[in-house]
Amino acid sequence: MERESDPTVVRSVAVHREDVVAAVQAREEGRPAVLRVTPPFSGRMRARLHVEQDGDGSTDALHLHPADLLAEDAPAFPTAAGTADRLRTTDRPDTPENRRELHLRRVAEWRGAVAGHVVDSVTVPTPDGGHELAVSVLGDGPRE
Questions:
Q1: 91, 117, 120, 137: which has the fewest C-beta neighbours closer than 10 Å?
Q2: 118-130 pLDDT, tens per residue?
Q3: What 3-state class would DSSP assign to 27?
Q4: CA–CA distance, 74 with 96 (Å, rounded to integer)
């Protein structure tokens, strides 16, 4: 395999914290987002938010599944059913507007909380088996 297209030469990958959060949210909402690392490969690379398209699998790019970049204790994405349940525990009427407002607030809270759960390393599949990469996180820390 030519060195420029050999993913095993990559030792570390930098990801922006907001890209990881956006990719996880996109996946939860049904869009096939990944963090993509494109050749030519070198020791340190940058992964960027990418929505997979038909034919993406034929490239030499590494596609990091966003859930693989989160620690196991990361908070779960808020569901519509969970939002409806939470609304029922308040004194606010259960209306579509109230559900939407509460769900948007819960998603914003989740985004702030999950941003602090990006892992320090990730194993990616390669033709030669799993390859571990150090993860460098760019961007601000978790928001309070």
A1: 91
A2: 999 999 988 889 9
A3: helix
A4: 28
Which domain covers residue 82, as residue numbers?
3-138
Check pLDDT > 80 for residue 2.
no
- Percent of the chain topping pLDDT 90: 69
Distance separating alpha carbons of residues 125 and 130, to the nearest angstrom: 5
Report helix, strand and coil shares of the chain as percent, to nearest 5: 40, 25, 35
| Planar angle of CA 134, 140, 144, nearest 5 degrees | 120
Owner of token pair 């609304």 = 87
Residue 143 within any structural domain of the chain: no
Q: How far apart are CA 108 and CA 86, in angstroms?
A: 15
How many domains in the chain? 1
Helix (H) or strand (E) holding 61: none
Note the pLDDT tens digit of each residue in 73-110.
Answer: 999 999 988 988 898 898 899 899 999 999 999 999 99
Phi, psi of 138 (to 5 degrees): -100, 155
- CA 101, distance to chain mean position in Å, is 24
